[in-house]
Amino acid sequence: MSSNMSVKAKKHLGQHFLIDKNVSKKIADQFQAHRNCTKVLEIGPGMGALTTFLLENKNNEVWAMDIDKESIVYLKSHFPQLENRIIEADFLKDNLATHFGSEPFAVVGNFPYNISSQILFRCLEYRNQIPEIMGMFQREVAWRIAEKPGSKAYGIISVLLQTFYDIEYCFTVDEHVFDPPPKVKSGVIRLTRNERNQLPCDEKKFIQVVKACFNQRRKMIRNSIKAMLGDVEFDHPLLTKRPEQLSVEDFIELTCAVEQIASKA
Q1: Tens-digit pLDDT profile for residues 56-105
Q2: Which of 5, 45, 6, 16 is nearest to 28 (CA)?
Q3: pTM for this prediction
Q4: CA 40 distance to own-chain centroid
Q5: Residues of the domain holding 230
């Protein structure tokens, strides 16, 4: 196979290929093998800019998943050491148990911007199997995910991910290191699984409360919760705050209180 073959970036797949080796290495170096997890699933490797450096650490067992046939052909040709660990599939729909069973695996990648949030919510479903997520996002999305309470950028995705992961914003990546260059800057973040396993409230109810509050983010919590409880009288110190002032623990406490009231109604 010709070594000068390359993959054409496809707009509908949101592909922007990293062409700066220093940046690729710097991103790969952010992977920490949290909880000694050395099985790494790279999503959307394209032409393997990140793969090359992930493979440099001999402890890593690297898997690559791409939806793009052309990338799959390229990876099989250029990374024979990956052998049977190149998967042609859509991460959002694939049955991950067929590759990993119930074993832990980390998720890394230069994620396509158009589905990056969906990728994270998919990881959240597998959170007890995914100790670490590390990758590149549109910078504003990366900021939002890592943001702490009290900021305008803090929102639904921040709370839901920070419930189960500690999140660190690593660094910003400029547009010119990609081909084709995106119109926005990128940000690299690392999410490492925290110690929280089971919520003391119903998880679906928790998500419902978080969404209800942020969907009316300018209003006090009292007004957002009202719709969920109808005419039931409800008093709680958090009700006079706005959603961006509440920590993950506050939202959990609020959900427990809502459940208690609802059970009495």
Answers
A1: 999 999 999 999 898 899 999 999 999 899 999 999 999 999 999 999 99
A2: 45
A3: 0.92
A4: 14
A5: 203-264
